[in-house]
Each structure stands twice: as C-alpha cells, then as structure tokens.
Amino acid sequence: MRRSLLMAGLLCVLAVAASADQVTLKNGDRLSGTIVKSDAKTMLIKTDLAGDVEVKWEDVSSIVSSQPLYLVLKDGETVAGTVTTSDSTFTVATTAAGRVQVPKDSVTDVRNAAVQKSVDAWSGILDTGLSLTRGNSATLAFSLTAKAARATKRDKISVYSTAVYASDDTTPPSRTTAHAIRGGIRGDFNLGERWFVFGLADFEYDQFQHLDLRNVLGGGLGYHVIKRKNTTFDVFGGGDYEQEYFSAIPAFPTGLTRKTAEVLAGEELNMKLNDRFALTETVSLFPNVTDTGQYRFQFDATAATKLKTWLSWQITFSDRYLSNPLPGLKGNDELLSTGLRLTFGKGAF
Fold first, then answer.
1. Phi, psi at residue 18, to the nearest 5°?
2. Are 102 and 89 in contact (CB under 8 A)?
C-alpha cells in the first residue's frame, strides 16, 4: 500500500515537472515553472514555490518549454512553438515550418501566449472634458479625444481624433461658440534599432476658421533619440501635400481652395515619471514650400495621473497656428481641458 502511494506521488511529481518549463542557468541551477517573458536582458519565470523569479538573460544556459513561446528576432520576425536549446541555438517546433533553428543572440524578446496576446492587441485612451453651467448662465463646453495604437518591434499603427464643441444659451438665440474636429492615422516602420520611416493622413474641420476640410498626406524619416522603457523621445522630418477648403466669406464669395506642398519637422516625447504619472508632448512645424513664408504649427501636451488601472485624471493643452488665416480671423486656436481618461489594453499607452 505504501509503495503504491509512493509511486502515485512520484508520478504526480513527474507529471507536474513534465508540464512545466525548465530553465537551466550557467551555474547549474535549474528553475521549473512558466516562462512569462524576456527582453534579452532579464527573463521572468513564474514558479510554484518561489513565485516570480527574474534572472539575467545572459545567465540562461538552456530552455525546455512545455508551452508555445514567441521568439522575436532582431529583424522583426516572430517564431512561435515549443522551444529547446543546444549550444546557444534555439530549436523551435513550429506548426507551419516544422523545426526552426534560431541563434540565441538573434533573439530580442521571448513571450508566452498571454504576453504575446497583449502585445498584438490594440490599446487606447479616451480623454473627456466637460464644463456645464445653468441658472443665470447656460453654457456648455465639451472636448473628446480618442487614440488607439498597435505597436510591435517592427512597426506601430496609430489612429487619433479630437472633437471640441461649445455653446452659449444664456440669451436667445442659442449660438455655437466652438466647433472643431480633427483626426488621422499614422504608421511607423522601424528600419533598425533607432531609425524609422513614417506615413500619415490627417483631416481637420473648424467652423470658426471657415475651414470645411483640411487633408494632409505626408511621410518621412525619424530617429529614436531616447528609447527606454519609461521614456521615449523621437525627432522626425519629411514632407507632405496639403489641401484646404474654406467656405464662402465676403472676401471670397465662392469660397477658397488652397493646395500646397509643405516641409514637415517635429519631435515627440513620452515619459512615465512613476507608476502613477505620465507626460506626453508633441511639436510639429509645417513650413509652406508652395507659398514660401507661410507655415502651420501644432503643439499638444498631456499630463495624466492614474487613479486606477483603467482610469486617470488628465489635463491637456493644444495649440494650432496658421500664419495665413482668412481675412478678419485669428491664426491661433488654443484648447485647455481637463477631465477623466479611460484606458484599455496594455500596449502603446
């Protein structure tokens, strides 16, 4: 009876060991558990006895995985399957191509299925700002900003939109005091560790600039000046083709259309100061090539304080400047808003 219980217990232990990932270090130590991820600097392993264990990637001698792992290579390719190692070479049992040999020094990231799913998925934010008065005054001011992105080692796709609306109903008739919508899509493709190319398409409407539509198609080259986990700083430059369609005003009874080429230059900063506070800032300058001496300028900055994992409080400042507005109109439009931020996903944001 005792021998049967001992054998049953031994079989259970062997079954658990067989279903676990095995990581062997260069000093001979072995860890059993679940490989979560590695960034070519450290590897995170979830063990039953010691909890989460982090080891240096350079100290890892061999891996035998019982689960499919996703290996991201320096050229951006991802190889997925169960992994064994021998002589600094990973052997990946893929479902499509069979066994694939991958040199260890060509691997930049290792992820299990759960981490890979979060990386591949879209992430996004929704910023809201609202001001409402009733009684002796009746005003409404509302702003809404939405952003979504999908980022990988190779590329990043971003979509974004901002809407601003304000009205005054204090004395009849009711009147709109602000109404603007802008948005677009941008794709970045990494050429290497630092350099990237990008393309964008932007669209804008502004009732009080009499701007029915501004659409911009452009692209260029960028450089990751700082590329760390909590801080990124990019500079970029290129060109674009801009089309502006203005509605009729006394100076232009039939409206006005302008089609011009522009130079594009700017910078973008994303900084996470701690677990709760983050800052983003973008500056873009568009000197006009067709009508030299004219230009556009854009500035956006947001500070956000996390209240919960999915909820933050944000304050945003935006400035849009046009050097050649229609006669009688100001060239500058500024927006300062504060309110709640809703976040989904764990990727780019």
1. -70, -30
2. yes
User: How does DSSP assign 104-142, residue by residue?
Assistant: GGGEEEEE-HHHHHHHHS-EEEEEEEEEEE-SS--EEEE
In the numeric block, the tokens 């029915």 are attached to: 212
Residue type, 162: T
Around Cβ 273, how many Cβ atoms within 10 Å? 11
**Which pTM was predicted?**
0.72
Q: Using DSSP bridges, classify how beta strands 277-287 and 51-56 pair: parallel, antiparallel or unpaired.
A: unpaired
Distance CA 43, CA 20 (A): 16
Cite the DSSP H helix spans in the chain.
2-18, 113-120
Determine the residue type at 292: T
**What residue segments make up the domains of the chain, in order of their start?**
2-119, 121-344
Q: Could you give the C-alpha distances from 271 to 190, 237, 297, in angstroms and in order?
A: 20, 21, 22
CA distance 72 to 106: 9
Q: Measure the CA angle with vertex 276, ends 348 and 126; round to 5°.
A: 50
The SS3 assignment for 209 reads helix
DSSP 252: B
Under CATH, what is the fold of the domain 121-344?
Lipocalin (2.40.128)
Q: Tell me phi and psi for residue 180, to 5 degrees.
A: -145, 145
For residues 347 and 123, the answer to whether their CB atoms sit within 8 Å is yes
Summarised one tens digit per residue, pLDDT across range 112-146 is 887 777 666 788 999 999 999 999 899 999 999 99
Nearest Cα to Cα of residue 281 among 301, 311, 297, 265: 301
| CA-based torsion, 101, 104, 106, 112: positive or negative | positive
Q: Which tens digit of pLDDT belongs to each residue from 272-331?
A: 988 899 999 999 999 999 999 999 999 999 999 999 888 999 999 999 999 999 999 999
- What distance in Å separates the CA atoms of residue 98 and residue 85, rounded to the nearest whole number? 16
Question: How far is residue 253's CA from residue 266's CA, in Å, rounded to a whole number?
Answer: 36
**Which residues, 6 or more positions from 128, have their beta carbon under 8 angstroms from its beta carbon?**
143, 144, 339, 340, 341, 342
Q: How many CB atoms lie within 10 A of CB 176?
A: 12
